[in-house]
Amino acid sequence: MKASELVIDNEAFSVLRGECEKIIDTHKRLPDLVFRRSFAKYFAIEYGLIYGKEFGALLFRISGIFGDESVHFMAVDPHPDSYYQNASHFGAASFKPSSLVERYVPVLSRERNVPQLLAGVNVGVFWGSSLKWGISCDRISWELAVIAVSEDIDVPTIGGFRCMDPSGVSSYMNSQYHWKPSAASDFTQRFFANYPI
Question: Which phi and psi (to 5°) does residue 120 adopt?
Fold first, then answer.
């Protein structure tokens, strides 16, 4: 599989899916614990941050810390297989760290003649080949992403954007579900039981 391209090969996709399942349980959704093991640190960010070049830069820096040979993205909802029927690629992408900052936005959002993968994803995941970190992103309900890392690294500093503390998550959920406070309260209670941010 060529680096920095959407995954179009069934065998490569099967390998990526198997690797993803080692770190992330793709059958679970936030606020449940979506990671298959405990991590040293968890960070919560707004989902909208994943669209920008700054997020590609964050992935590059995390991959450098953990010595990843590649960084991957896979759609969870809709199912990644569904993309192949309509666009001749799976809902997945793989990047070499050296080209991540340059290629992240074009490949996932704005490449000519390529469907905008991130725009059609309700739930997606990122992870590095080291399997020492992962990111679960839920757009459809909560507009939230959770970054999990196996070492005590300062994601807000290396990412250059704000991560939410517990009061920030609570406030954010209350604003997302201002019309249904019980949904926000239930989410935050379950979220904090699983993610010590």
Answer: -100, 5
